[in-house]
Amino acid sequence: MTKQLTPAEAWQKLRDGNGRFISSTSSHPNQDASRRASLVNTQDPFAVIFGCSDSRLAAEIIFDVGLGDIFVVRTAGQVIDDAVLGSLEYSVSVLNVPLIVVLGHDSCGAVTATANAIDSGTMPVGFIRDLVERITSSVLTSRRNGDTDINAAVEEHIRQTAQRLADSSRVVADAIENGSTAVVGVTYRLDEGKADLVSQLGNL
Fold this sequence. Notes:
Elements: H1 7-22, H2 33-38, E1 47-52, H3 59-62, E2 70-75, H4 82-93, E3 99-105, H5 109-120, H6 128-144, H7 150-168, H8 170-177, E4 182-188, E5 195-201
Parallel strand pairs: 1-2, 1-3, 3-4
Antiparallel strand pairs: 4-5
Helix pairs in contact: 5-6, 6-7, 7-8
Protein name: carbonic anhydrase
Organism: Arthrobacter subterraneus
Keywords: Lyase, Metal-binding, Zinc
């Protein structure tokens, strides 16, 4: 088992990997047969990424990590539901992950669909409606703050999602309070590949 990282060390490791990805110097660590074999009976990820399902937001690639390095949970628009909360609580309470990253990205389709629904007054059908309803407060808050740009709404949604996670899960809230885990909100820039810090809960 590797040394348990602090939340700050885990965040720095992700930042370093993202820097390599941006500069096209990715090292593609922990992706060989020996690493695969070492993980057959155990895993010890140093971070959990709760991100948008967008195909351009592949966490292992943009943070230049490999097998067993990160625990990944994804939904469209990084929308929280009970399964997400259970997965994140598992990562904190069982896997002892020191860092949760709420990962959104600019030009998010789910946030754009929500803005369009607000503007048109027409809600989408099926379960897409549920996604839109869960993102609506973020878009409305952004607009009340005078921001009409969709990427401002994306960042507001990242902040609200991170806070909602802490408010909804006693397991996560306790881990933040005792310093064993931190939650960061991060937005990914599609054009440059950069992951920027938007919000922070707990110490880094």
